[in-house]
Automatic annotation (TrEMBL):
Name of the molecule in the record: Uncharacterized protein
Domain of life according to the entry: Bacteria
Lineage, opening ranks: Bacteria, Bacillati, Actinomycetota, Actinomycetes, Kitasatosporales
Organism of this sequence: Streptomyces paradoxus
Length: 54
């Protein structure tokens, strides 16, 4: 009977991990990529400018 108890511990842990994983991976509000794309465009423009003194 004690061996069954030891086998239940990993089973309960696996079920708990599965529940936590599904909760952590749930669909959230989709974030808009606008600010990141705007920042990247500014970075690209800055890199394309000629360097002074070069």
């Amino acid at each position: 009977m004690a061996a069954l108890a030891w086998l239940l511990i990993p089973l309960v842990a696996a079920i708990g991990a599965g529940l936590w994983g599904s909760w952590a991976n749930r669909a959230r509000n989709v974030r808009n990529d606008g600010p990141e794309l705007t920042g990247y465009a500014r970075f690209r423009e800055a890199m394309e400018k000629p360097r002074p003194g070069a």
